[in-house]
Amino acid sequence: MLFRKRERQFYQLQAPLTSLIDIVFLLLIYFLLTTNFMVDEGIKIKLPTAHATSPQTQKEITIVVDKQGRTFLENQEVPLNELFTVLKERLQGKQDGLVVIKADRAIILNKAVRVMDVAKAAGAGRLVLATEKAF
What does the chain look like in DSSP terms, one character per residue? Predict the structure, then answer.
């Protein structure tokens, strides 16, 4: 009696990819949506870089000084001679008012210092010069 060796069928293992594809698409949608909320609109300036920066969590008043030396308060151009009165109104009643100055790195330092002097004279408790984190 001859016995024939039966050939065994090998089963191939397949990983379930459906759940993996679902997770990848959910991550893709999440990152697409969150990057849309990170857009910072406003005046186009290039901030100076610094290695030691820390994020500000307090509500602040932001003054932007562009390349030409023009000053903007919340995306509206305010001449330097009117900036004092506008800041005095906004800082009224705030003892430790925070004023962030975003000055373009190409401007002359004197223009940024003048804006800082006006903000301090208007009653700003703290002045912060905005920078970008250097990588």
Answer: -PPPPPPPPPPPP----HHHHHHHHHHHHHHHHHHHHT---S----PPEESS-----S--EEEEE-TT--EEETTEE--HHHHHHHHHHHTTT-TT-EEEEEE-TTS-HHHHHHHHHHHHHTT-SEEEE--EEP-
